[in-house]
Amino acid sequence: MARVGAALIEGLRTWLVWAVLEVLSPGWAAWLLTRDQVAVYLGENLLASGSPLDASPFLISSAALMSTVFALRVRSARRRDPQLCVHDAMRQVTRAWRPILALPVLPLLFTLPAGIQSFLRPTLIAMVTILIASGVLAWPWPVPKLSRRLARDLSFGTVAVATVAWVVFFARLGWKRHWSLNTRAFDLGIYDNIFWNTLHGDPLACSIIKGGTHTSAHFDPILVLLTPLYGLAPKAETLISLQVVWIATGVVPLYRLCMKRLGSRGFATVLCLCYLLYPSLQGIVLFDFHSLALLIPLALWAIERLEAGGLRGYFAALAGILLVREDAALFACGLGLYAMVRTPSRMRVGVATLAMSIAWLTTVKLFVMPDSGLLMASSEATYTYANRYGDVIPGGEGGVRDIAATVVTNPMFVLQYVLQADKIVMLLVLLLPLCFLPLLSGPMWVTFAYGLAFTLLASKPSLYYPYFHYVSVLVPVLFAAAPAGFERLLQITRADGPGSPVGRATMAALLSSSLLCALAYGAVVENETFRLHTDIVRELSPAEREQIEWVRKTAASIPADASVSASNRLAPHVTNRAKVHIIQQEVDTDYVLLHKGDLSSEELETIRRKVTRGTHTIVDTQGLMMLLERG
Fold first, then answer.
1. CA-CA distance, 585 to 606, in Å (whole number)?
2. Cα 159 to chain center, whole Å?
3. Could you give phi then psi for residue 582, rounded to 5 degrees?
4. Residues 181, 186, 192, CA angle at the centre, nearest 5°?
5. Quick count: other Cβ atoms within 10 Å of Cβ 72?
6. Which of 149, 377, 408, 516 is the most buried (most CB within 10 A)?
């Protein structure tokens, strides 16, 4: 009797509680999934009297099945090691099967109310990830080893197939968003017009914005270099495809960086898959087109070349970064600082990077752009960005000097300002898929500085919304820091390389966390939490197909040399011409293409007066859309 009691106590202490939870977990999950309204059961506990007893058959079946599985695994373990006692064998089995505890959590994760602000969603993802990692860490059975050639081919093949599938999927999704009239003049129409004018000999010109040139907002000469690609098919769909393909190429420097740091094809493959599953990256490629998004692969190339010692490639990538936008020079300063602190031998590279970046920014602001201020002032020829940081500018008006004064003289205000809930959520969405590995990267922290200041000091929510292009200043450095963070984790745990149990558990955690984040936050499946400023359309309805056919036919009927005013959602379909405006500019044009849903009552009244007075006649209509011609 004493021996039985001692065995029971030993079991309770080491494995019995875990075993009970694990054998019941599949039953709990199966019972939840058979409910008509899982969200009601989980969120409000509106159970009918006696209905919890409905779970009994599921729990009994689960206990019987899993107990059998556990008994077989224990027998197998003891056959391999006859010296292994039952307690030790059960401890091994229950540790290895720990991930099964995540099954009841998954229905809760995917029935939470839509909205990115919830802290419960990342908490549940972290719980599931930890359970999976703990199971892989404790896995007692041998892992098969692949030949070097097979490992290489499998790794390359996996990344290549996943990348091609990603490009096809998100390009088509972007096209459908455009065809369903969910893109806008700001910003797809603007960039379409910039490319068209550049193609026809007027670099960076744009008739939609102030001053008729994009330098009123940004200086992004990289668009001039990309214009020949646009010239192959000069329309908005080309820009959508170009952005998707361009960002997808980031897997190449990312893979090379992992191999340089760790020499592990397994980790390189996993991190590239995480890149493709990354929710913020999916938001960036689907949100119209933006020059800032072009920074991502260039930054990855710069860091990869710096780590590899390929200075020619590094400075070529740095030149590309500087051409992305004038303020990308501030991002590049972070790369220069990293080069200086990484190794003493890179000090000259870091100094040269800082000098080139500062010289380029100074030249552009003084001699190219119409306003020399970093945030600029609002005028007839320029847009201001001071209003995006108004809360950290004393009095709401000023520039970078005033922001710096606030940071230095009132740090406690700044601390509580950057720790707002929405900004913490942004950081969670960015870091959780990477299992927070970038935080272990040490010297690479300096590359985060500009991106964190750019987003966390902002008062305009779009700048720290994780699906918009503004987080492009953080995404590449976080991914570039992940291999360094993984390397540091292996050092802390004294693990024997990426193939060790700690290494395998970390890779499993990365893949599972990224997959769960993609499902919970991303656009790979229908997801109410993934929200841009307009809807994501996965399949065009018959009405939408009829609508886009009318838009295409109408746009084609307008003479190429005619001037057009268009409303916001229709503008991107006619911006591939020289003389195009949005209706709010109040420019008298040959044609007016409008969607009534885009216009205020006053603007609709102005259109009505044009028709009544005979200055414009109605050429064609389709639902809420209308084409007017002057005369």
1. 13
2. 18
3. -95, 155
4. 80
5. 11
6. 516
**pLDDT tens readout for residues 443-498:** 999 999 999 999 999 999 999 999 999 999 999 999 999 999 999 999 999 999 99
pLDDT at 504: 94
Task: Please choose, from the candidates 446, 386, 391, the residue with its C-alpha nearest in 3D space to the C-alpha of residue 416.
Answer: 391
Please compute, for residue 123, the number of CA atoms within 13 A of its CA located in the half-sphere on the CB side: 6
CA distances from 567 to 120, 432, 591, 595, 614 (A): 40, 39, 12, 6, 21
Q: Which two tokens stand for residue 183?
A: 């893109």
Q: Give the three-state DSSP class for 466.
A: coil
Pairing mode of beta strands 564-566, 591-595: parallel
Judged by DSSP in three states, 460 sits in coil
Task: Please write the tens of the pLDDT for every residue from 521-571.
Answer: 999 998 888 988 888 999 999 999 999 999 999 999 999 999 999 999 999
Tell me the C-alpha distance between 16 and 583, whole Å.
Answer: 71
* Position 103, amino acid: L
Q: Decide: helix, strand or coil at residue 498.
A: coil
Instruction: Write phi, then psi, for 595 (nearest 5 degrees).
Output: -120, 120
Beta strands in 252-409 (DSSP E): none
**Residue 425 in contact with residue 521, Cβ under 8 Å?**
no
Is there a cis peptide before residue 391, judged by omega within 30 degrees of 0?
A: no
Question: Token match 């001037």: residue?
Answer: 563
Q: 114: pLDDT confidence band, cut at 50, 70 and 90?
A: confident
Q: In angstroms, what is the C-alpha Rg of the chain?
A: 29
CA-CA distance, 480 to 475, in Å (whole number)?
9
How far lies 396's CA from each of 216, 378, 388, 459, 485, in Å? 22, 14, 10, 11, 39
What angle do the packed helices 279-286 and 265-277 form, to 10 degrees? 50
- Both tokens of 114, joined, read 């839509």
- CB-neighbour burial class of residue 450 (10 A; exposed 0-12, middle 13-18, buried 19+): buried
Can you give the length of the chain in residues?
631
Instruction: Say what the pLDDT of residue 585 is.
Output: 93
